[in-house]
Design goal:
The complex is a heterodimer of chains A (112) and B (115). Chain A is mainly beta and 112 residues long. In chain A, 0% of the residues lie in helices and 55% in strands. Chain A has strands spanning 3-5, 9-13, 18-25, 32-37, 44-49, 53-57, 60-65, 70-75, 84-91, 100-102, 106-111. In chain A, strands 2, 4, 5, 9, 10 and 11 form a six-stranded mixed beta sheet that branches. In chain A, strands 1-3-8-7-6 form a five-stranded antiparallel beta sheet, with no helix packed on it. With 115 residues, chain B is mostly beta strands. Chain B is built from no helices and eleven strands. In chain B, strands 2, 4, 5, 6, 9, 10 and 11 form a seven-stranded mixed beta sheet that branches. Chain B has a four-stranded antiparallel beta sheet with strand order 1-3-8-7, with no helix packed on it. The chains are: A mainly beta (112), B mainly beta (115). The A-B interface holds A 30-31, 33, 35, 41-45, 48, 50, 87, 89, 94-105 and B 4, 31, 33, 35, 41-45, 48, 50, 55-56, 58, 90, 92, 94, 97-99, 101, 103-109.
Chain lengths: 112, 115
């Protein structure tokens, strides 16, 4: 089966840096996505990694190590609006297929 | 460019009834996927459609079905509703699927409550 693990909850202080980890064990791999989901809203795309290394996009960075089945999302200069759930998702390989398997999400609370 | 739209946004049904949810993808997007989101299980993949063909199906019972029309709009149907079907149903569309960086864009979801 597919298994994606991430911490259930995290708390961090406004202005600080937080790292949200994700480990995965899946039958096939064709990319890893991070999504942000505010309460009551749809998930919105943050980042995509398919090769090992760091992808940076403004205050958000995402890292991938395929050999370790590991990724993290790094949020810098935290703002109150960053309080949300962060979802790690793996796209499984396979011809003509777009299927994302999600972790259960990490609820991040940013405190003053 | 308009985003993914889903109708209805909220729905209340009783056990045993059936329900049909609708999704209109972003213009030009041909891949449409459906997910169920519950507090306990998180986001779970239901199925994916591309050019009116179901390409992938998750581990859900046959009561869950879907289809896609020639204009890429998609519907999903749940028959013989159970209390456990209460969830947020999310639709996501993407421009192209296998082998690309293209991400999926999610709609606002339909919140279904089964009484």
């Amino acid at each position: 089966g597919q298994n994606i693990d991430q911490p259930t909850e995290m708390t961090a202080t406004e202005g600080a840096i937080v790292q949200i980890n994700c480990t995965y064990q899946t039958s096939g791999f064709n990319g890893l996505f991070w999504y942000q989901q505010h309460a009551g809203e749809a998930p919105t795309f943050l980042s995509y990694n398919v090769l090992d290394g760091l992808e940076e996009k403004g205050r958000f960075s995402s890292f991938l190590s395929r050999s370790k089945g590991y990724s993290y999302l790094l949020l810098k200069e935290l703002q109150m609006k960053d309080s949300a759930s962060y979802l790690c998702a793996v796209r499984l390989s396979g011809a003509g297929s777009y299927q994302l398997t999600f972790g259960k999400g990490t609820k991040l609370s940013v405190i003053p | 460019k308009a985003g993914v739209t889903q109708t209805p946004r909220y729905l209340i049904k009783t056990r045993g009834q059936q329900v049909t949810l609708s999704c209109s993808p972003i213009s030009g997007h041909r891949s449409v996927s459906w997910y169920q989101q519950t507090p306990g299980q998180g986001l779970q993949f239901l199925f994916e459609y591309f050019s009116e063909t179901q390409r992938n199906k998750g581990n859900f019972p046959g009561r869950f079905s879907g289809r896609q029309f020639s204009n890429s709009r998609s519907e999903m149907n749940v028959s013989t509703l159970e209390l456990g079907d209460s969830a947020l149903y999310l639709c996501a569309s993407s421009l192209e699927a296998a082998g690309s960086r293209e991400t999926q864009y999610f709609g606002p979801g339909t919140r279904l409550l089964v009484l």
